[in-house]
Description:
- 68% of the residues lie in helices and 2% in strands.
- The chain is mostly helical.
Amino acid sequence: MASTATCTVTCSDSEPTEFIIPDFVSDCHYPMQLNPHCDLVSRASEQWLCSEAHLVEPERTKYTSLLAGYFASSCYPDADAFHLKVCADFLGWSFKLDDWLEIERSDVNDAWGVRDCCLSAYRDPVNYQTERYCAKMCKSYFARFKETGGPGCTERFIHAMDLWFISAAKEVDNRAKGHVDDVESYIELRRDLSGCKSCFALIEFVNRIDLPDEVVSHPVIMALEEATNDFVSWSNDIFSYNMEQSHHSTHNLVAVLMIDQGLNLQDAVDYCARLCNISLQRFEENRAIIPSWGEEVDKQVALYVQGLQNWITGPLQWSFVTARYFGKDVNIVKQDRTVKLIPKRPL
């Protein structure tokens, strides 16, 4: 289980000033890997993002420092350069869109408008015409996706993205209304909003496989995906809590636990960490009972499950390299696991 610690508080108002994150790197025993094409693809993807999203300073530095190419290289360590570049471009685009919806916009109609444009771009990336940068970027990376993506894999990606857009619109609406989900409702919403489901379709894409419907719909495979999704989502909620609390965001399991369960900050972090470790146990338990569909399909399933494992370690590896969550203190946080709370921004 993840280690626990006492949260430091100020003497005057008993508000926490820092918290200690769990040692997930030690808790997770899977090896961390990095794609050998990382540097080349990262540079190309950064250029693509800055050009396609029309980024200027300080946004240019903000988004290139997120290291989408490194993130893709950690999660898809065996992909060739072409497939890795598609993944890196998608992840870079998703960071920009995520911030756009979470921080820059509060109108749910904007969120639905983005959904309509992007889904149209996925359906026909060559002929669909739009002036929205976000949808133009979809056209760019998804036209390349469709060069090798199988029909089942393609539909799974589009469906997963539709779920993401629907959940993003709901979150925008919740935020505008000041609504905070209970724990159970939040977990259900988070599984769609994490973006993991579309990233799992990219596992098929980079391996050039197209899993049969009977595999994709099998309870054990679905349980493996859910366990991976939960670990990625909940560990990310711990890592991103500081940034999100500074923006007054409550779309975070740590914040939801504090509000719904009446926990203090450190207890909520520790509770979230225990859920993460339970999800790792669920992954191993289901991995041990994967059925057989015959030699050829079993090879594809093995590649896919290995890809899910890479998605457990990849975000962990990236989170302690990127500036997204811990800023210039990332190396210090990696060493002592102490996160100092930053002041909340004025409303």
